[in-house]
Specification:
It is a single chain. The protein has 262 residues and is of the alpha/beta class. 39% of the residues lie in helices and 21% in strands. Strands 8-7-6-9-11-10 form a six-stranded mixed beta sheet, with helices on one face. A five-stranded parallel beta sheet has the order 2-1-12-13-14. It has a three-stranded antiparallel beta sheet with strand order 3-4-5, sandwiched between helices. Strand 13, helix 10 and strand 14 form a beta-alpha-beta unit. The two termini are 16 Å apart.
Length: 262
Amino acid sequence: MVLIDLDDTLLDSRHNITEKTANIINQLLKMGIKVVLATGRMYRSSLPYARKLNLSGEIICYNGAYIRDLEKGTVIYHQPIDLALAEDIISETEKAGLYLNLYQDDELYVSERNEKSELYREISGIESKAVGRLSEFIKKAPTKMLVIEIEREKLQKSLAYFQEKYSSVVEITRSKEFFIEFMARGVSKGNALKITAERHGLPLDEVIAIGDSYNDISMIKAAGIGIAVGNAPPAVKKEADIIAGNHDNEGVSTVLAEIFGI
């Protein structure tokens, strides 16, 4: 089984899957190799790529908080953030003047649409719903929350603050350089990898995981072969068994072709 991250790994800088990559994955499927997308994205933001690749079985979304069967549409696993914790974190982001994405029922809610919501729309293809103050809107446990902060120093300070205050009760990670992501305690792509492998009776040493960012480290470490693409930061590459090429230079398709002798 091969688990592959989407953004900055399988997808190039224009958020596309190249023809070469699609062909290699198609050959893996014909060989009986299971291919699973493992992404921080929402389900409906990930689904078009799964369809393009003719994938079946599981898809891992929201950094492992949500696993769904592509054919049956059934939810295999869903672990939202505790509502009280989510309310507390939202309050902190509002006090700090941070922009927050709130994910509930595979919908994206924000306080207002602005340049940050437009940035996210360009990446994900998802239009957000502006609902005013999120602290007044939230009524149920969210699947995930995500801070968008372009100013590097502010992001670093915020990340350090949240990690110090909440890391014992929620999972905090980063995907893109300007995202801080919050999930329920115990949620990770690594945990989702283990759940999916177990469902298919596969030992972990028969699983390959490919990613580029901090939220991919858990699955890179959990897999029998963990691969970081060439554009990954040093901290991610350090945990990988193999360093592949850049996502804009057929890194994924090339390394998979080498491993499977295609």
